[in-house]
Amino acid sequence: MRFRKALFVAGALAAIAAPPVAAQPAREPIRVIFDTDMWGDIDDVLALAMLHALQDRGEARLLAVTSSTDDPSTTTFIDALDTFYGHGDIPVGLIRDGVTARQTIGHFPSFFMSKGYTEALSGAVNPDGSLVFPRTLKKGEAAPDAVALLRKTLAAQPDGSVVIIQVGFSTNLARLLESKADRTSPLDGMSLVRRKVRLLSVMAGAYADRQGRPLQTGTPEFNLELDVPSAQIGASMRIKGSTVDRLYGYARNHPVSAAYHYADPIYRKKDTPPGVLHDHATYDLTSVLYAIRPDDGYFSLSAPGQINVLPDGSSRFVARPDGAHRYLMMDDAQRARALEAMTLLASEPPRREGGDGH
């Protein structure tokens, strides 16, 4: 399955080998940077909605969101979603000279729409000319450079305190690691990540089948294949499309529901009943769930090892006692619990003023 994804986690980063960092106090929200290729696939928007719910619950603190899709509409839509959830002050960064939406379409012309939901919805207006989804960022082009924002955000955080959730292309993270010392920090990118990041949760690759058996051969995966030089579970859990209108019906105009409806024609299958939305895979949501609730038993971890990305965009996991990487595994009971938790969190109403309909 070409679009299959899995999640791997690394203590700081592969090849960084950061020293162990003491766990944060249980009552302190986990400091999160969310790096996304939001544009066409809607698991990104569901995952970001989850993070806002977790922030409202006091479990997470979203420090910044960076777009790894080189399209200004991604930042305006992200800002609109943040604003809807009452967190419009979260900074949003945009990659420049990265993977573009047009490259995405060209790579899989039969799969993606000619216009992503970020473009269609961030520019949507009411009859009176006002934005359907209000935002504070007027133009996406005005968003700060993603790597500059990453450096600034990390430099301001306590050592060993940040979790990076990467659910898109690896370009931003690769450029962060290659960055040089600047006014923000005297540390180069590798040293800055070593000092500030305690966990990297990445949605990419495929390492085991549904029964947990290691895969002997890999298949190029979308996020890796479009930016192989930088890159070096969720298919079995699907949000029920039949529940979307009910779950998000508390708001007259909901950005998550609107994105789901907009992308529905692309993801429908032959067996999807007429008049019912498709069931959508929860790839990126699993990355968020593990990163924020690693000890809640939703997943099991593989043995330590090393993950390498091959030139064709596939990846390999090799078990090693001193390895910094692990991938997630789950049984049927965990799968049911995780799907329920992700569905409820992704659809939880905002607790702060800002959601339409409150």
Number of strands: 12
- Average predicted local confidence, pLDDT: 83
- Radius of gyration from the CA trace? 19 Å
- The SSE order reads EEHEHEHHHEHHEHHEHHEHEEEEH
Total helix count? 13
CATH superfamily: Ribonucleoside hydrolase-like
**Residue runs with pLDDT of under 50 for 5 or more positions:** 1-8, 11-21, 220-232, 354-358
Strand content: 15-25%
Helix content: 25-40%
CATH architecture: Alpha-Beta Complex
Look at the structure and give the CATH class.
Alpha Beta
Which secondary-structure class do the elements indicate? Answer: alpha/beta
- Characterize the largest beta sheet: strand count, sense, and whether it forms a barrel: 8 strands, mixed
- The best one-word shape is globular
Name the strands of the widest sheet in spatial order.
4-3-2-5-6-1-12-9
CATH topology: Inosine-uridine Nucleoside N-ribohydrolase, Chain A
Verbal overview:
- The chain contains 13 helices and twelve strands.
- The chain is an alpha/beta fold.
- It has a single domain (about 5-345), classed as Inosine-uridine Nucleoside N-ribohydrolase, Chain A, CATH 3.90.245.
- Strands 4-3-2-5-6-1-12-9 form an eight-stranded mixed β-sheet, sandwiched between helices.
- The longest helix has 15 residues, at about 330-345.
- It is globular and about 55 Å long.
- The chain starts with 6 loop residues before the first strand and ends in a 12-residue tail after the last helix.
